[in-house]
């Protein structure tokens, strides 16, 4: 069975709690990504998504200089490199999220996105099942 370590992105750009929302948005643009993990003392403490910026910063009329900590999603759902792709797809479906940070001993070692399942051509329809469940609306989503 395929493990997350086989499909995850290992080189992940991060920001710290010292960064502001504008700095994270610039990094998102430069890296062409929709999520930036937030680390503090090498430990994953949150993620900031493009959706977080829209809903918690812009829509609430907070300035771009707002602290990352005020805007980021701190309710983290993570997996380890040893998690099977089937387990990860199930977690993504249950939590209705499209990206999962991969951590080992609290340290970020990668990230897996729903697209990684499709790109790797997993044959048991894991991505299809996860996407169909993630696409169902839920008002209590942690992050996307």
Could you name the CATH homologous superfamily? CBS-domain
Structural class category: alpha+beta
CATH uppermost class:
Alpha Beta
What is the distance, rounded to the nearest whole angstrom, between the alpha carbons of the first and last residues? 26 Å
The tally of domains stands at 1
Radius of gyration: 15 Å
Strand order of the largest sheet: 1-2-3
Count of helix runs = 6
Assign an overall shape. Answer: globular
> What is the H-and-E element order?
EHEEHHHEEHH
Largest sheet, if any? 3 strands, mixed
Poorly predicted spans: none
The level of helicity is 25-40%
Number of strands: 5
Residue share in β-strands? 15-25%
Which architecture per CATH?
A: Roll
Q: The CATH topology is what?
A: CBS-domain
**Residue-averaged pLDDT:** 86
């Amino acid at each position: 069975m395929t493990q997350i370590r086989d499909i995850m992105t290992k080189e992940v750009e991060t920001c710290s709690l010292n960064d502001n929302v504008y700095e994270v948005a610039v990094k998102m643009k430069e890296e062409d990504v929709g999520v930036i993990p937030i680390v503090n003392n090498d430990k994953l403490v949150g993620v900031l998504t493009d959706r977080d910026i829209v809903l918690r910063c812009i829509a609430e009329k907070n300035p771009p200089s707002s602290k990352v900590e005020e805007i980021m999603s701190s309710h983290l759902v993570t997996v380890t490199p040893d998690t099977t792709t089937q387990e990860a797809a199930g977690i993504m479906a249950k939590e209705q999220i499209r990206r999962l940070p991969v951590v080992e001993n609290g340290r970020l070692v990668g990230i897996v996105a729903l697209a990684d399942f499709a790109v790797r051509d997993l044959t048991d329809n894991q991505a299809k099942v996860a996407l169909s469940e993630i696409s169902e609306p839920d008002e209590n989503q942690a992050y996307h």
